[in-house]
Amino acid sequence: MGIIKDLDDTQAPLLDHLIELRGRLVKAVAALMVAFVISFYFADQIFGLLVQPLTSAFPEGQGQLVYTQLYGAFFVEIKVALFAAFFISFPIIANQLWAFIAPGLYAKEKRAFLPFLLATPILFTMGAALAYFVVMPLAFEFFLGFEGEAGGLPANALPEMGQYLDLVMRFILAFGISFLLPVLLMLLNMAGLVTREQLVSARRYIIVAVFVVAALITPPDVISQLMLALPLLLLFEGSLLLMLLSERKRAKEEAKAEATSGSPLEEAADAAADEPTN
Question: How many helices (H) and strands (E) does the chain have?
Answer without folding.
Answer: 11, 2
